[in-house]
Amino acid sequence: MFYREAGQFKTSYETDGQIFPIRQDRLAVGALLALAFGVVPWFASEYWFSAILVPFLVFALAALGLNILTGYAGQLSLGTAAFMAVGAYASYNFQLRIEGMPILASFALGGVCAALVGIAFGLPSLRIKGFYLAVATLAAQFFVLWVLTKFPWLSNNSASGVITAQKITLFGFDINTPVRKYLFVLSIVTVMALAAKNLVRSHTGRAWMAVRDMDVAAEVIGIPLMRVKLLAFAVSSFYCGVAGALYAYCYLGSVEPDGFSLDLSFRILFMIIIGGVGSILGSFLGAAFILLLPILLDSTLPALATFLHLPFTNATVSHIQLMVFGALIIFFLIVEPHGLARLWQIAKEKLRIWPFPH
Description:
The chain is mostly helical. It has a domain at 22-260. The protein has helices spanning 13-16, 23-43, 46-72, 80-97, 103-122, 131-150, 178-200, 203-213, 215-220, 225-252, 262-275, 280-308, 314-334, 339-353; strands at residues 163-164, 168-170, 173-175, 254-255. The strands form 2 sheets. Strands 1-4 form a two-stranded antiparallel sheet. The radius of gyration is 21 Å and the shape is globular. The model has no long low-confidence stretch (mean pLDDT 87).
């Protein structure tokens, strides 16, 4: 009843091809953007900006990149953190080596470098798939970190490979406060998320989904597997590269190769599993869940332990977090493989007929 499309007629190709064809979706997205851009900057604290909102947006963008490759194109990857590292270090070097380089151009070129690396490590997808491809992309994780450690030129001759991000200046305006960094990251993530939403509805997105469902049948109907798969690796790595640049410049400020470890790749993979594989919304829901759950457990478990007189230590709390993550992944894989995004879709379907039973 609240989500019914009755009376919303599509009278032109433009209305039929809208990113959000249903009026309720357009209103909801508009209200959410108005809240994020107009209300949150006035009421959130610096802690929320620095520790929750900015990392949430960065990880959501990285999860979105992985979701394009794994969820829409069906190519399993475990090298997400490596592509983020390429984007971060490439953006740093573009800013360092080329005087007057705009920061957005550095981020874009860092994403392009990550896309090229992604294409190189996506070549095995032409012959192998599934877990074998995951192992092949796992090689990118170790190879990229080895290169960043063994070639000091990439880190401006830093002995440990640590880089410190330069200050961000956009059109002569310094982005040096938490709220400014939040708005900067939010603007980039919004544009790239809408672009991804439009891309997966295009001819390219349909080709990715055809390859994901059955690559042999896709090849029979004329879809070029090599171009489609490598394009998926390129676009996914570009998104991860830009996320890595934002991770270094707007979240941490200084990064090292070990900061882009395999643990980070698995963390982003967990985001799309819990949020929903093959869903733009699922990338954001999964990132929010993975980021907020440890904060919730850190605040509730010590109080629960005190109430029950249990000897909980910080190590115990961290172990319980890992156990909860593992249990949730098993739960979603068995009960709801499409994750939180599917639960939201079911809720919208219920709203279409509420309060009537049929």
